[in-house]
Amino acid sequence: MEDRAQFDINESLKYYLSDPTSVPTADAEPELLECEADPDQLSTTLIDNVLNPIVDAVAENPEGLARPSKRILTLARILRHCSILPIRSLSKLLDLIVSGLSVEADIVHGDLESDEPDGVQHHKHLLEMYGFLLQWALSAVEVKAAERPAEAAPARRGVGKSGRSKASMRDGHWDWTAQIQISMETMCKVMKLKLSRIFLTTSDRDTFVNLFTRSIYLILESEQRVKSMTIRMHAFKVLCIAVKHHGHAFGECS
């Protein structure tokens, strides 16, 4: 039987919030582990070779992220190198995470509507995996956005390969606006679900919702981001849903 990732959101957050590079990823793809001694080997080609099978698996079923277990560890390993990660690779990774989470939200909605209580509990860990990776990826995006990237946008299609035009480049800078907007739209989609039927304790639900709100507060710290009416409106929509539907205490992400 194919192994499934044993993901503990509280344990993962403990490492991540202390130091993202301390998140355990020892069982990730060997090619990435070999780059540890020489990060310069972390090329777009190498990352594509590692990412493409995961992209295909998630396109077939969002549970592909969790089977086999090394897939989520591989994505986490890539994010550990976000400071030197090629921008095109980070963009592709963000597409993968957001697309997978969006499809998973559709599946969860269908299961919730079927009104079978035992049919939704297995979604908890998968939602936490996607939420955790999305938080990390958006944090990496904000780090990259503060730099002066000058890479051309690749042509991509499908999950993890969403089409992006030359409009993604402005004055030699990668424009993350569209991907951030889609990320926030997906957050809203997920938080409109009846999460109390999946996260049976208030603590578990708060931990999950905070994966999204923590990213929003980080985005709103950027002067460049808040100048965008679209970004501001989407950010406030995420926070409003978190407050209204999930009792989020505005401004708190402990």
Automatic annotation (TrEMBL):
GO molecular function ontology, one term from the record: histone binding
Xref: InterPro entries: CND1/NCAPD3, Condensin_cplx_su1_N
Signal peptide positions (record): none
Cellular-component GO terms for this entry: condensed chromosome, centromeric region; condensin complex
Domain Condensin complex subunit 1 N-terminal span(s) in chain numbering: 89-250
Domain of life (superkingdom): Eukaryota
Any single biological process term in GO: mitotic chromosome condensation
Membrane-spanning parts: none
Protein name (Swiss-Prot/TrEMBL): Unnamed protein product
Origin species: Aspergillus oryzae
